Amino acid sequence: MTDNRVVVVGLDGATFDLIEPWASQGKLPTFRKLMAGGAWGRMNTTVPPLTPCAWSSFMTGKNPGKHGQFSFYKLNENWDLDIDWDEYRSEETIWQILSKEGKRCCVINVPLTYPPHKLNGYMISGFTTPGLQSNFTYPQHLKKKLFDRIPEFRIAENSRYTEKREDKLRFAQDIAELTEIHEKTVHYLLDEEDWDFFMITFMATDHIQHWYWKYMDKTHPDYEIEKEFENKILDIYIQIDGILSRLLQRLSANTTLLLMSDHGAGKYVSDVNINQWLKENGYLKFKKSPTTMAKGLLYALGITPTRLIDMAFKMGLGRMAKPSPTRTAGWIKKILDGFGYTWSDIDWRHTRAYSFGYYGSIFINLEDRASQGSVKPGDYELVRESIIEDLKLLKVPGTNEALVTEIWKREELYWGNKSEKLPDISFCMGNYAYAAASMLAFPSGELFSPPKTLKSGDHRSDGVFLAYGNQIRKGTMVDDAEIFDLAPTILNLMGANIPSDMDGKVLRVIFED
Q1: How far is 119 from 106, CA to CA, in rounded Å?
Q2: Which residues 6+ apart lie within 8 Å of 53 measured at CB?
Q3: What CATH number does domain 5-267+460-510 carry, 3.30.70.1070, 2.120.10.30, 3.40.720.10, 3.30.565.10?
Q4: Phi, psi at residue 113, to the nearest 5°?
C-alpha cells in the first residue's frame, strides 16, 4: 500500500475539440498548465456514448457486457418503460474496492450513484437523484451538515431551456450557479473530512453544450447569431478552469489529479425514428386493433408525439421538465399515452426487429429471448445481416451521403454474462449528430424530425483524459485510453489490488520511470 492520494474531476461531456484551441489561445490557462505538465489524450468511451453506459464502465472498470448498463430505461415484460440505472450495482465500484482496503473515499455528484453506496467515507449522489427530499447522502447525517453549511445546495438546475430569451438566459445562469454551489461543496468536504480518494463530477459542461451549441458553431444548420449566447459554452469552461486552479492550490505533493469525461461533444442535427424505418422495411408490424388504427389516423393528421412535445415547449410547459430522466419520463408519458404509438401497439408475433435506446440500437425479436419472439435462432444471423445491409443504404437528408457511418454487431462490442441483454446491432449516425429516442417507440410518422428537447449539441465517442502530479510523466500524449482503463489506473496509483475480472488496463505510459 502507498500513501498516494487521488482526486478525480469528472467533467461530463467535456471535449478536447474545445479545450485544445481555447487553452492554446490563453483562454483556459489552468487546462494549458495541466496539459503541458501532465499526460493527456482523447479517451474512447462506450458504445453507446451515453451517461448510464459510460459512467458505469468508468466506475467498475468493465465493459457493458459485464455491468449490463445500457440506457436510462428498459422495456419490461409488459412492454412498458422502466427506469434502469441499477443494473451496474452488481459490480464493485472503485470506491467500494478502495473502501475494503481501508482507503477513505469522498464521492460527490457522480451520475448513477443514487441511492448512495455504503462506503468507507461519504457520498453525495448525483444525476438521477430524484430530489432533495430523498436520502441522497451517505451517511445520512451528512445531509443535515451539508444544508447547515451550504443552505442553497442542490443537485440539479432549477430551470429548463426553452426558446424564450428569458429562459435561455436563466438556464445558462442556473448552470453556472449550480457549478459554483458544487465547488463550495468540494472545498467544504476537503476541509471537513479525511480522504484518500476524492471525486467530484460537474455536469455543467454537458448541459451547456446540449442547448447552446448552435450559438457557437457556424457549421450547425440552425446556427443563430445571438451575441449574448455565443460564449455561454466558453464561459462554463472558463469557470471550470478557475475551479481547477483553486483546487490545484490545495493539493499536496503526494496527490495525483485526474480529469476525465464520460464522452465528448459536438453538434446535434436531427432525431431519427428507427422504428419507423424498420416498419417501412418490413421488419416491424403494427397490430390491427381499433386503438392502434385510430392512432394511425392521428399520425396522418400530423398529431404526433413530436408535434405535441414541440407545442408544449412553445407554450412554456418545457419549464416543468427539469433535466432529469425520472421527471422527463413521467412528464412525457402523461402527455403522450393517449396519442402516440406505444410498444403495446406493435404486433410482436410478426415483428422481427425493433429499435430501443437513445442511439437507435436494434434488437432482434428472437423466439428464445422473448415470450412473443418471432425469429427462430437459425434465422438470427440472416435477419441481422439483412438489417445491417439496409442500414448502409440510409442517406443524410437531401444528400447522397451515407447516414450510418459505423455499425457493430453485439459481440464486437460486448463480452460478459450480461451481454445478451444488450443490442444485437449498434450504429453511429453522422458521428452521433443524429440519434433516436430513449422513451418513444414512434415519435412521429416521419423518419427525420427536429430534436424533441430543442437541443443543438450532443455526445461524441472521444472523451477527455488528463493526469497531473509528481508521479505523472510530463508532456505525455495518451493515444489508446479506454474509459474502463481509469478504474485499474486509479487503483494502481493508490497501491490497491486490481480485480482480475476488470477489463481495463493500467495506463502505464503516464507514469514516471
Answers
A1: 9
A2: 46, 47, 64, 69, 70, 71
A3: 3.40.720.10
A4: -95, 10
Task: Name 273's Cβ contacts closer than 8 Å, sequence gap at least 6.
Answer: 436, 437, 442, 443, 444, 446, 447, 448, 449
| Pairing of β 264-267 and β 255-260 | unpaired
List the chain domain ranges. Answer: 5-267+460-510, 270-454
Contact 500, 70 (CB under 8 A): no
327-356 pLDDT, tens digit per residue, is 555 555 555 566 788 888 999 999 999 999
pLDDT tens for 243-262 read 999 999 999 999 999 999 99
**Which cell numbers in the block locate residue 406?**
459505423
DSSP letter for each residue of 273-328: -HHHHHHHTTS--B---HHHHHHHHHHHTT--HHHHHHHHHHTTGGGGS-S-HHHH
Of 464, 470, 478, nearest to 39 by C-alpha is: 478
Match 493500467 to its residue by C-alpha cell: 506
Element holding 367 (H helix, E strand):
none
Tell me how far apart the alpha carbons of residues 58 and 94 are, in angstroms, rounded to a whole number: 9
Of 470, 456, 462, 460, the C-alpha closest to 512 is 470
Contacts 24+ apart (CB under 8 A), 383-392: 383/283, 383/352, 383/353, 384/409, 384/424, 384/425, 387/278, 387/283, 387/353, 387/362, 387/425, 388/425, 390/281, 391/425, 391/427
Sign, CA torsion 61/64/67/71: positive
pTM of the prediction? 0.94
